[in-house]
Write a structure and sequence with these properties.
It is a single chain. The chain is an alpha/beta fold and about 375 residues long. The protein is built from 12 helices and 10 strands. The strands form 2 sheets. Strands 1, 2, 3, 4, 5 and 10 form a 6-stranded mixed β-sheet that branches. A 4-stranded parallel β-sheet has the order 7-6-8-9, sandwiched between helices. Strand 1 and strand 2 form a beta hairpin.
Length: about 375
């Protein structure tokens, strides 16, 4: 990890520049009572069916609260401590809002910022929307460089492997043989990844797997979604090309699995599935966790390990969807379900974020500060 520790500098033109890091996340309400207001933000003020509001309130009530904001702020504190630069947090759908945070950065004199979306796998419904929200508040004085994708960062894979290893060992000892691992990430509507192309896809581009049925009897599993679909709207002026999200999710999973290969985890032992499908109509990308659990039980497996590799900390999609919903389904299937601990304050995760920030900071230093700056193109890791 490259050392940073450089907050304010002066360029050759004598202009003072101040660097910072901006961590971006979806956002989550702190209390059950705040959920209706939060959902209005998610759907841009559109009317939400009351049964959707009540279902989400029920889920939050079951887990007490979502700690997403708490963990994200903790990750920011640890990163700031490590790199010696100011680290800000902005949420798209809840406090602290991205717009408020970017305005605060400008007030603090920040001129150059590395923006890191805390969803490592790039999607138009994460990086694209967060980027648009941040750029709207730059005021022509704040330069951003977005880390568009870091799904393949080796330290990220190391962090997930570090969490998975003890859980998989315990599960294998409990069952007496290798236990399958299901890596998961949040599903998105099929339409958000299947953008109409001006010409057919090249033969060497694999199309994502898609669920084309109701997928599972609702009585056999948890009510599937956690957020209305507008949360996954594709930003305006999106280029007509396939969304990399499903490919990058599986890429992260493969890198994590590779790190356990020397301990006996083979390519036949791990699977990938999407979780937390939405309540709206229309197909969402799959396969689903529910289907995968059922299929593994039908194959005779008595235990399974779940590791969400699309999320960097505990929140409702983990504490309810997995720890309650999928656990209840596994119990009905007579399947022992283990979950790897979330990254949360993982030192390896913080090292990964520090490495991303250090690499981008050098690129920002070469960009002149002008009265009317334009957004800097996003780059991958």
């Amino acid at each position: 990890m490259t050392d940073v520790h450089e907050s304010g500098t002066t360029n050759e033109a004598g202009t003072h520049r101040k660097s910072a890091v901006l961590l971006l996340a979806h956002g989550t309400p702190e209390t059950v009572e705040e959920i209706p207001e939060y959902l209005k933000n998610v759907v841009s003020g559109r009317t939400i069916p009351q049964h959707v509001v009540e279902e989400i309130q029920h889920r939050y009530a079951r887990i007490g609260k979502s700690p997403l904001t708490e963990w994200t702020l903790r990750q920011a504190d640890l990163l700031q401590e490590l790199i010696g630069l100011p680290v800000y947090v902005g949420m798209r759908n809840w406090k602290p809002y991205i717009a408020d945070t970017v305005r605060a950065m400008r007030t603090d004199g920040v001129t150059d910022a590395i923006a890191i979306c805390l969803a490592p796998q790039n999607s138009r419904t994460s990086v694209g929307l967060y980027r648009r929200a941040a750029y709207a508040e730059t005021g022509g004085t704040l330069h951003f460089r977005f880390v568009e994708s870091w799904a393949d960062h080796p330290l990220l894979a190391d962090a997930f492997a570090e969490r998975l290893r003890p859980t998989w060992r315990d599960a294998c000892r409990f069952v007496g043989k290798n236990v399958p691992v299901i890596f998961t990430a949040h599903s998105v509507p099929c339409r958000t990844i299947q953008v109409q192309m001006p010409q057919p896809l090249s033969a060497n581009i694999a199309e994502p797997k898609v669920d084309d049925t109701a997928l599972i009897d609702r009585s056999q599993g948890p009510v599937r979604p956690t957020a209305p679909e507008r949360s996954y709207a594709v930003p305006a002026n999106t280029p007509a090309r396939p969304d990399p999200y499903p490919v990058e999710c599986k890429q992260t999973a493969a890198l994590v699995a590779k790190r356990l290969a020397h301990e006996g985890l083979t390519g036949r032992d791990w699977y990938f599935a999407f979780q937390s499908h939405g309540m709206s109509g229309g197909p969402w990308i799959g396969p689903t966790v529910e289907d995968t659990l059922q299929n593994l039980r039908q194959e005779g497996h008595r235990g399974v390990v779940l590791q969400p590799i699309g999320f960097l900390c505990d929140h409702v999609e983990i504490l309810y969807d997995i720890d309650i919903g999928f656990q209840e389904l596994a119990n009905r299937l007579d399947l022992k379900l283990f979950r790897a601990e979330s990254l949360n304050a993982s030192p390896l995760l913080i090292d990964a974020l520090a490495d991303l920030a250090a690499r981008r900071l050098e690129q920002l230093k070469a960009i002149p500060t002008t009265p009317k700056s334009t957004p800097i193109a996003s780059v991958s890791r």
